[in-house]
Structure formats: structure tokens, C-alpha cells
Amino acid sequence: MQRGRNVSKLTLQKVAELAGVSRSTVSRVVNHHPSVKPAVRQRVQKVIDETGYHPDPAARSLANQRSGIIGLVIPRVFQSLFTDPYYPRLMQGISQACNTHNYILSLFLFHTEDEEQKLTAKLLRQQLVDGIILSALPAGDPLVPQLIGSQMPTVMIGRPLEAQAISYVDVSNVDGADEAVAHLLKLGRQRIATITGPLNTTVGLDRRQGYRNALRNDDIAVDEALIVESDFTEAGGYQAARQLLEHRPDAIFAASDPMAMGALRALRDAGRRVPDDIAIIGFDDLPFAATAHPPLTTVRQPILRQGITAVEMLTDLLESGLRPTRQFTAPTELVIRQSCGANPKTHVDIDVNVRL
Amino acid sequence: MQRGRNVSKLTLQKVAELAGVSRSTVSRVVNHHPSVKPAVRQRVQKVIDETGYHPDPAARSLANQRSGIIGLVIPRVFQSLFTDPYYPRLMQGISQACNTHNYILSLFLFHTEDEEQKLTAKLLRQQLVDGIILSALPAGDPLVPQLIGSQMPTVMIGRPLEAQAISYVDVSNVDGADEAVAHLLKLGRQRIATITGPLNTTVGLDRRQGYRNALRNDDIAVDEALIVESDFTEAGGYQAARQLLEHRPDAIFAASDPMAMGALRALRDAGRRVPDDIAIIGFDDLPFAATAHPPLTTVRQPILRQGITAVEMLTDLLESGLRPTRQFTAPTELVIRQSCGANPKTHVDIDVNVRL
DNA sequence: GTGAAAGCGCTAACAG
DNA sequence: CTGTTAGCGCTTTCAC
Predict the structure, then answer these.
(1) What are phi and psi of B164, to 5 degrees?
(2) What pTM, to 2 d.p., does this model score?
(3) Which CATH superfamily is domain A7-64 in?
(4) B55 contacts in A (CB within 8 Å)?
């Protein structure tokens, strides 16, 4: 360990000596404890600033039993989604909120089942992290019950499939999908198909439910042939759309923007015009939606905000010491561009940066 | 702090008692110290397994002066790139390697200048992380000298602009670009333009250099009007391509795939056919390149591998305790699809998953 | 090969 | 309001 730590380390003790007080007082100043006489506080703070003292996180963790770290856990199954900007954006929100709340963000991506096992055990047993933000999981994943069983404060991104006693932030998937499909109906589309997400996830199920609700609301019978399950990816959307083409839909509601892009590509390959022959609506409003060809009408969800909210819920839990479960559902918004056929003349919107 | 830590915590001490040895011995077993009699080791290990003991990371850090954490630092300037899959993929590689080397990965995204200041100070001064992986920085960023000045072991992703005494992993940007442009020349293109990345980054400069090298190699004079600087984004590529159109290029080499996509869109809007009127080659081989319309010829760089290599270089530094600087440059590979006009009949390759 | 003991740097009662 | 004191759980000489 002869790692050139030349300068003798700066500790509470040293600062205390320089300021002519005890360690406790310095500690109190560092931790913004109210009971320190202003004059003393000032004197100590001056020394801290001048010396550039920072408390040692390990010592601090050991003494007060918390790490100051929030863990973001993303299970193996969803790694594919890493090819679309959803996760990056979510992480941006989470990171931002961690910074403002003074937590360190650690990332736990599981790449193999084995890793998942081992890391999970570590995460739950040790004082590695103070709390966990967990991205949505498919049905029956053992992670959720494990977390609930443990004492680990957790907030999920997306409602868990089995309505568990756990906090989560979600978006109004049902209503968002409903609104999209209702919009297609209003535009006179008759045979509206949908490409769903995986039906072992709430996101997949909820958006399909919204689709059904909209049809039912217009007294239109659901044609099961017009519902194809896919996987949220571009390639999946492509395949699904090819399959749907045989049933001659005049509109497709894709439960994610990448799938909508895949559908767009399939239709182009098949020589169909969008929106003239077939209208398309996606879900997410990812950056590329605005510059797609044609620009994609889609249901915007506030991804960044979701991440921020998740962190805030978690830090609330951590700081209150209580453990009530809370839920938050963010609204969605239908962003009308050209692929739905409502706006045939509008110019391409290249101002991709005006997003939450 | 009455945080329902009901079960009295499992410590070295307890394990020692159960196994009938001293704490030191348990510690030795946990740390795979050689000098423990096999019989004893086995007995202790059994207790560890049965009780599910895991050492407390904070206590461990405090005692041995290392956190077991690697910090991934991504400066503010590059957050825009978060909309393309480059960073996610890099993070995947880094995370994977961290897992296998038993390090925790912490993420430091700077969102404001202020945050950058404060977090950097924290990062460098404290024992927060054992080492840092730093994504590339534009010229003149103070972070690099700061890092070098500190004792913090660091590996950069991408060669720093000022050739510093620092370790990094890079890709052969010059040769990759050269190969792409040479390929266009071989196909008979005469007026080859390029959309560069920001010219205050090595990536931007190197790829432009490759472009120049290829032309020079064919004794073609460089027409500065055919070189437009952009920012690696789709929107930037779109603007740059519009600008280039006035100078009637018959091919465009874009220094990133998103910019190539933007160029594609600009050409489509302008009624030019790709590759018939204008050929396009990108750089990255991001997942969407294969499914673009037309499929994008591009220079593939092994992003995942870069991340893994960076972690391995860093853990080597950490474990050897030495601090030699090392450099690694990964090769690139030209992936020929249809946008360059070499392959007019090939079918769309939707097998996007076969990538490193 | 194993145990005893001295910290690592900080927090948090408890006195005063 | 401030100082004293006792740990937090582990690693690591140093003896035996």
C-alpha cells in the first residue's frame, strides 16, 4: 500500500487544532448542527475553507451507518433498451437529483444471471447503498419480493406487475394510449392496430389497455388479429408491422417510439405511404421522433422528471426514516406531428431540444 | 436513526466466535490470505456461508484506505451525446468490467458548471473513489491538468487534446476515416465532403485528418468549402449537409452516425437520392445504422471493448500501485452497407445484434 | 499459523 | 454551547 499519499492527511483532528476547538465542534460545523456559537462556527468554517478539508466518507459511513449512496439497479432483461435513449435520459434525471440532494449515484447493471444473484445479495445485505431505485421488472421477477423482504428503502420506476407494497413512480400509460388511439379514431381511422410491449410488463399491459379502452369507448369491437406483441425495439416493431400488414390496418399505435420507427420502416419497405395509407402513433417522444420521416406523432412521457421524482421520493424515505409507500403517476401528453395524418402541412420540427 | 435494523448485525467478531477463532483469522479467510491452515479456513468458510456474512464496506474502506469504487466522470459538455447510444454502450462495457473485477461503479454527470466545480473537488480530495474513468474533453478543459496534479489514478476515454502524461484508450480515428474516404474514392466519387465533429476535440480533429490523408493519398486537393464543422448530433448533421449541398458534393463522410442520419434526412428533403446522387458514410456503427434507409455504410468502433479496456487499465494501475501511463488504440473496421453505393443490391441487414 | 491490540476518521451520547 | 469519550467494523503489524 505504499501509494504515495505523501501529504499527511487532513483530518477532523487537524482542523480542530488549527481552529482551537475540539473535534466534535468541527464535526458539528461540518454537519450544520444548529448548536454552535456563530463566532466559533465562522472561525472553524474559515479553517475548513482554507485547508480545503473534506470529511472522509468511509469514516463517516462507518460512524453513522449510512453510505450516502443511492443505487440504480437495471436488470439484465432491459439491457436491450439501452440502445434507445430512454435509459440515458432517465439516468440523467436521477443523476441530477442525486447531485442536488448530495447523494452519490452507483450503477448496478446485471449482465448475467449469476451476476444478478451475487450483486443482489451484496446490495441487500451490506450497507453498500442507503436506498435503491429499481427499473421496472417483468412479471415474476424475484427481485421485488426480495427487496420488500429486506429492509432496503426502494423506489421503482414503473408500477410493479404484482401490486406490491412498494413505492413507485409511473406515467399514465393507460390514458396516454387511450388518447392516442382516440385521436386516430377521431381522424376517421377504422382498422386501428397496435404493437404492444412485452405483455409480462405493466407498461406493455397498460398501453394495450388504453388501446382497448379507446375502442370500447367508440363501441368498436377489438379484433385480436390487430394486436401484436413485441419488445419495444425497432427490429421488433418492424417484424410486428409486417405481420400486421396482412390484416390491412389503416392505423398503427406502437407502444414505443423505436417500435414506431420499425413500423415506419416496414411500411416503407412494403410501399405504403404514411400517413396517407396508414397512420402511425408512437409512445415516448424520444428525440428522434421529431426528425423521423414523416415526423412521428407520439405520446410524450416526462422521463427526466420521472427520474428526479424517484430520487426525491427515495431521499424523503431515507431522511424521514419512515417507510410509508408512495406512488406517483405522471401525466402524458399527445404530441401531434405528421405520422398520424392530422397535420399534413406542418413543417418538420427540428427543434428537438425543447423537451423536459 | 432508529431505522429498524432489528437483527443484530453480523460482524467479523460474531463469525469469529461461531467458528471458534479470532477476528484476525476470519479477516484472513475473507481476504484469501495464504497463511491460514486449510482445516481452519474450511471451518471458517463454512460459518461464513451459513450465516451469509459479508464484510461491511465502510469499515473495510476506513481500515485499508480504499473504497472499491471506480468513478465514471462525464462532463457537462457531452451530455448532449446522451441522446445517442454511444455513452450507454460505453457504460455497459465499463459496468461489465467493474462487475468482473469487483469494483462498484459510480456515475458522476455534471449538469452545471457549479456542480462540476464542487463534485470535482470532492472527487479529487477525498477517498470517494479509488480511480477515475474520464470521458473525452474539449481542448483547454481544466479537468485534465487537475487530475494529473492530483494523485488520482485516471484513464481517459479518447486521447486528450494536449498530449498529457495520462493513460487513455482510443480508437484509430485517423485510419478509420482514411479508410472510409479511400473507399469512396475507389468507388469513383470525385467531390467528397466531410462533416466533422467539434474541432476542439481529438475525435473531431483526427477524423478530419483521416479525410485529408485519404485525399492527399490520391493527390486530390482539399476544397475547404467541402469541410463543415458540426457537433456529432443528428440536427447538426442536417444543418451541415444543407450547407454542403450548395457545393455539389457527390459523397459525404460524416464523422458520426447521428450526423450521417441528419445528412440523410437533409438529402431526402432536398430530393437527392442516396447513394445514386450522393454517397454517405458515417462513423460508429450504432445500432440504427443497419436499419437506416438506406442502410448506412459506416466505420465501426468497438465501444464496449473500449469501456472494458479502460477499466482493466485502471484496475491494473490500482492493484499494481504503480503509476505508469499507458495508451491503447483499438482498430476500427469499415462496414459496407448501401449508403456508399458499393452494394446496391444487398438486402437490408436487420441482424443488429451481432456487434461487439 | 494464529491471536492481541492498535488504529483508520468520524459521529453521537453524555457531561459539564 | 462545547469537550470528553466510547464506539462504528475491519485490517494489520507484532508477538507468540
Answers:
(1) -100, 165
(2) 0.90
(3) lambda repressor-like DNA-binding domains (1.10.260.40)
(4) 126
Q: Does domain B173-301+335-340 have CATH number 2.40.10.10?
A: no
Q: Which residues of B touch A107 (CB under 8 A)?
A: 72, 91, 95, 105-107
- Which H helix or E strand runs over B297? strand B297-300
CATH topology of domain A69-171+303-330: Rossmann fold (3.40.50)
CATH 3.40.50.2300 in chain A, residue ranges: 69-171+303-330, 173-301+335-340
- CATH 1.10.260.40 domain span(s) along chain B: 7-64
Q: What letter would DSSP give residue B138?
A: -
Kindly give the confidence (pLDDT) of every residue in chain B, 356 residues in length, as a single tens digit, with 9 standing for 90 and above.
333 334 578 899 999 999 999 999 999 999 999 989 999 999 999 999 999 999 999 999 999 999 999 999 998 766 565 677 888 889 999 999 999 999 999 999 988 888 888 889 888 877 899 999 998 777 778 888 888 888 899 999 999 887 778 999 999 999 999 999 999 999 999 999 999 999 999 999 999 999 999 999 999 999 999 999 999 988 899 999 999 999 999 999 999 999 999 999 899 989 999 999 999 999 999 988 998 889 999 999 999 999 999 999 999 999 887 778 899 999 999 999 999 998 754 444 444 333 33
**Which grid coordinates are listed for B188?**
469513383
Whose cell is 410486428? That residue is A240
φ, ψ of residue A141 in degrees (nearest 5): -70, 135
Residue B206 to residues A225, B199, B212, Cα–Cα distance (Å)? 52, 9, 10
Residues 65-104 of B with CB under 7 A from strand C: 65
Does B89 sit within 8 Å of A88, measured CB to CB?
A: no
Q: Tell whether B107 is within 8 A of chain A (Cβ).
A: yes
Nearest-CA residue of chain B relative to A60? B58
Q: How far is B125 from chain A (nearest CA, A)?
A: 7
How many cross-chain Cβ pairs, A to B, lie less than 8 Å apart? 165
